[in-house]
Amino acid sequence: PEAIRLVTKGGHAATVVDLSFLGGTTRISLETSGFRLKALIQNGKKAPGNGESVRIDWAKTELHLMDDPQ
Questions:
Q1: Which of 10, 43, 58, 60 is deepest in the core (most CB within 10 A)?
Q2: Integer angstrom CA distances of residue 15 from 19, 23, 49, 52, 69
Q3: Where would I find the beta strands (DSSP E) of 22-69?
Q4: Contact call for residues 41 and 1 (beta carbons, < 8 A)
Q5: CA-CA distance, 66 to 10, in Å (whole number)?
Q6: What CA–CA distance (Å, rounded) separates 15 from 29?
Q7: Separation of CA 5 from chain center
Q8: Model-level pTM?
Q9: Is 27 buried (19+), middle (13-18) or exposed (0-12) by CB count in 10 A?
């Protein structure tokens, strides 16, 4: 979640599905292309609201794919 950032241009379209205030940060649950992701933003930055459309991005070196737990 630390590697995912909200951007204004480029990146990937996502929808905010949940917000969790965690003291110094807010965890944002996102849905994009059928996937659920989480991002963290520092408090003091404007957090998007539930159902809001946002754009997200991350450095390719930060991508870690997990095996399906079937």
A1: 58
A2: 11, 23, 10, 6, 24
A3: 25-32, 35-42, 53-57
A4: no
A5: 25
A6: 8
A7: 7
A8: 0.81
A9: middle
CB-based contact 57:14 (threshold 8 Å): no
- Please, what is the average pLDDT of the chain? 89
Nearest Cα neighbor of 14 from 57, 66, 58, 64 is: 57
Residue 66 CB neighbours (<10 A) = 5
SS3 state of residue 60: helix
Is the confidence at residue 38, as pLDDT, over 80?
A: yes
Q: What's the rounded Cα separation, in Å, for the pair 70 and 66?
A: 12
Amino acid 47: pLDDT? 87
Cα distance between residue 7 and residue 64, in whole Å: 20
C-alpha to C-alpha distance for 40 and 48, rounded to whole angstroms = 12
